[in-house]
Amino acid sequence: MRVHPARSGHPVHPVHPGVRRTALGAVLLLAVAACTAPGKDTTGPAPHEPGTLRVLASSELADMKGILEQVREDTGITVRPTYMGTLDAVGLLAKGRTEGTYDAVWLSSNDYLRLDPAAAKRVVSQTPVMSSPLAVGVKDATVRKLGWQPKDVTWADVEKAVKDGGLTYGMTDPARSNSGFSTLVSVASGLSGAQSALTDADVRQAAPRLREFFGGQRLTSGSSGWLAAAYDRRGDVDALLNYESVLQSKKGLTVIRPRDGVVTADYPISSLASTSREVREDVRRLAEALRTPATQRLITERTLRRPVVPSVPPAAGLDTTRRRELPFPGSRSVADGLLDSYENKLRRPSRTVYVLDTSGSMGDEGRLDRLKKALTGLTGDFREREEVTLMPFGSAVKSVRTHVVRPGNPRAGLDAIRRDTEELTAEGDTAIYTSLEKAYEHLGADDDTFTSIVLMTDGENTAGAGPAEFDGFYRRLAEDERRIPVFPILFGDSDRGELEHIADLTGGRLFDARKGSLDGAFEEIRGYQ
């Protein structure tokens, strides 16, 4: 059952023993996996240096690189960012894992942080730098087909379009991404009719409508960048729910801010309480430099976010019509309860085949033990209704075992996955492509689930079909089956080029467990399932 112990000091509701992971373990795994873009050094930030700020930043702020370089030239302050999801960063703050490692945090919003007293006490300042409201980006042709006037559209209109089969969309994972969580809060507020901050009663009242609404979700992702690429690749999804700045950069979309309100990101820079007076002064100078009129103009022109300095107008094309700002949930229990409801009841279930290399080389250097540990730990992250298939392979596929995490008895499915994991043995050669073909044949097409394949291998292909044969197999698949992405994990002596090709061919993404951890790679992939 998918839960969020890293973000709550108490359970949302009772669960079976062994289902929840420890808060610290979940947070640390995500920190290792998500701190930088794939393929970059993931050894963590460098020790503090005078004139250098080590900043824990929301992942979408990677587009500020050029502007931060300009600020460095103007002020002499160098920013060394470490990127991860906003909610995961709050988890690190809450556990004190930022002290001595970071000097400041720069998140899309501090709203979630303020709900956690342990996290909130670790920051001592907050200076908004820019803003971007949550919005709905709808294909121009779909807007015309629905007969919408963008300035008049409400969340109820979006819900009706979904219910009538006229609108499908993609959004990021609310458990990891602030854009996803902002979407969840905005939709729940709009459909419940809440006149103030969401309550548990509002969420319960809106649950049937929310279930209908999330039935239209066809894409999920741990990052806005991959979501946009998957949207382009599929071509049959009507809309994206994300920050206005992300949507404005895509051609062919009408960007709509629903009339009944949205949540807005304001990107505050915050000093950490554990830092010295000198460091805090550098953080203040950085924030001041980012808020000068000249820099604010650069920000809005290059990133399509809105300036926070009144004298600077928003970039051309940004709608200046006023919209209601929806309040954030007033308590941690409401926020976590909303997340739990989305993960286990509202969203479409997940269906995943784990194609696991258990060839002879996995017996070296404790690799098989690391795989078993990572998979066993991952069971605490599986959601209700989720279907999990373990497909270990060597010279060929060794077995195919499928388990479902059933709401009435989740422990039965989770225990079965753990037993199968413990029985894995290392022997044989490495038949990567033949095993992937078996995974696609097992899955077939299923439009009612988020379907994916996770490939973990520690070596190059040495048996069975080769890359050209797999390419041909993949291209002969039905269109619906070609929409199933493969998420390869680089581990041991596996070939980066080989795995990158598989990810690119299938529309997946490569995750590197050689510089981070195998646990962290499996955990990060959860945002895409």
What does this structure look like?
The chain has 529 residues and is of the alpha/beta class. It folds into 3 domains: 5-130 and 267-307, D-Maltodextrin-Binding Protein, domain 2 (3-Layer(aba) Sandwich); 132-264 and 323-342, D-Maltodextrin-Binding Protein, domain 2; 349-528, von Willebrand factor, type A domain (Rossmann fold, 3-Layer(aba) Sandwich). Helices cover 40% and strands 17% of the residues. Residues 1-44 have low confidence and may be disordered.
Measured on Cα atoms, how large is the radius of gyration? 23 Å
The oligomerization state is single chain
Number of domains: 3
CATH topology of the largest domain: Rossmann fold
Count every helix, treating DSSP H or I runs of 4 or more residues as helices. 21
Content-based structural category: alpha/beta
Q: Low-confidence parts, pLDDT < 50 over ≥5 residues?
A: 1-44
Q: Which terms summarize this structure?
A:
529 residues; alpha/beta; D-Maltodextrin-Binding Protein, domain 2; Rossmann fold; 7-stranded mixed β-sheet; 6-stranded mixed β-sheet; 17% strand; disordered N terminus
Could you give a short description of this structure?
This protein has helices at residues 23-34, 65-75, 86-94, 111-114, 117-120, 140-146, 155-163, 178-192, 200-214, 224-234, 244-248, 277-290, 293-303, 332-346, 367-378, 410-422, 432-443, 467-476, 479-482, 496-506, 518-525; strands at residues 52-58, 78-84, 104-106, 127-128, 130-139, 169-172, 217-221, 239-243, 253-256, 264-265, 268-271, 306-307, 350-357, 387-393, 401-404, 450-457, 486-490, 511-512. By secondary structure, it is α/β, with parallel strands linked by helices. The longest helix is centred in the middle third of the chain and has 15 residues, at 178-192.
